Amino acid sequence: MGYWGKRDDMIVHDVEPYNAEPPCAMLDGRSLTPLDTFYSRNHGPVQQIDPDEWRLDVDGLVDTPLTLSLTELRNRFASRTVVATLQCAGNRRVELAAFRPIPGQTPWGSAAISTAQWTGAALADVLAAAGLCLDAQHIAFAASDVSHVPDPPQPFGASIPVAKALADEVLLAWEMNGVPLPAVHGAPVRVVVPGYIGARSVKWVRRLTAQEHPSDNYFQAKDYLLLPADADPAAAASGQGLSLGVAALNAAILRPSDRQTLPAGPIQVSGYASAGDNRGVARLDVSVDGGQHWSQADLEPAAGPWAWRLWQVTVKLPPGPGVIVARAWDTSAVVQSESAEHLWNPLGYMNTAWARVRVTGGL
Ligand SMILES: Nc1nc2c(c(=O)[nH]1)N[C@H]1C(S)=C(S)[C@@H](COP(=O)(O)O)O[C@H]1N2
Ligand SMILES: [Mo]
């Protein structure tokens, strides 16, 4: 077994803090990602928290600040289960970096995304118990892992707008795929914000604060920003750029793998597509001739409104070297952009360009 209960063949970008994604093919065909295969993204040390010692503080713009133990959280609030896909905003960064280097950022392939069934209390129920004040606009989450990315070091944190925090699907989760949350995924309790970038699903959460402004935590205010291509990455330090929140439409080809040689002729192509907040995946097209002709893939039924859609299609692979491309459409008729080159940004976020794998059709 690999680190943190993960499979041996994980692609480990960093051991400390632990950053790893599975080989793409290992995500294929499984609507829920097994725990040993689920990607993991960390900005600080994985926390080992005694569940009996853990407390959650709820404070800020609430009538009654609360401190909850795990037992109180589980007993006081109805438990809910949501199947949700988590995707890092840096998913597919390696394809951006192929156009222009992105120094200091993890070179994620297409597997910084996974799907699990999460069980926990609705964040909305906990906020209601505390008596959320009308002037609260954002709910900030603070965790216990101290990251050395910011100077001086700072615990991880994030925030989401109140309207999202009050939505049914946002959980304080203690279970993942029917078992207690593993340490690497935020035990004993993490936030799960379906439809938002992974960075807002704060692990090892210990404090919820209702406030008028977004969190000033480094990872909310200074990182996870989409900067214009010509901006100095240092511009992020002053908080310039688009603060990422809602996820965007994205897709990838999981099989065949990049640089694979296959017999020319009919082959099966498969992958995932994931839509943004409150959108669905409507269609997925695959082309073996750079987009002149497209075949529509079969979309598997969704495991729920917040889960990715797996897809597959049989196409005729021509002999010789070529590229297979795939593009998804969402329920608002938005389609992915053709080229990652035009999406390049200094911190390397949100590569939502057409998926491509280079293949050779053998004879
Ligand atoms: N406390 C804490 N929460 C965190 C992070 C972190 O470093 N610390 N990383 C975030 C990021 S950037 C992502 S993409 C997801 C990854 O969740 P996973 O490790 O369970 O896959 O967790 C988010 N929550
Ligand atoms: Mo992330």
UniProtKB/TrEMBL annotation:
SUPFAM superfamilies: E set domains, Oxidoreductase molybdopterin-binding domain. The keyword Transcription regulation does not apply. It comes from the Bacteria. InterPro entries: Ig_E-set, MoCF_OxRdtse_dimer, Mopterin_OxRdtase_euk, OxRdtase_Mopterin-bd_dom, OxRdtase_Mopterin-bd_sf, OxRdtase_Mopterin_BS. Keywords: Heme, Iron, Metal-binding, Molybdenum, Oxidoreductase. Gene3D superfamilies: 2.60.40.650, Oxidoreductase, molybdopterin-binding domain. Pfam families: Mo-co_dimer, Oxidored_molyb. Its cofactor is Mo-molybdopterin. Residues 43-219 form the Oxidoreductase molybdopterin-binding domain. Residues 249-360 form the Moybdenum cofactor oxidoreductase dimerisation domain. This is Sulfite oxidase.
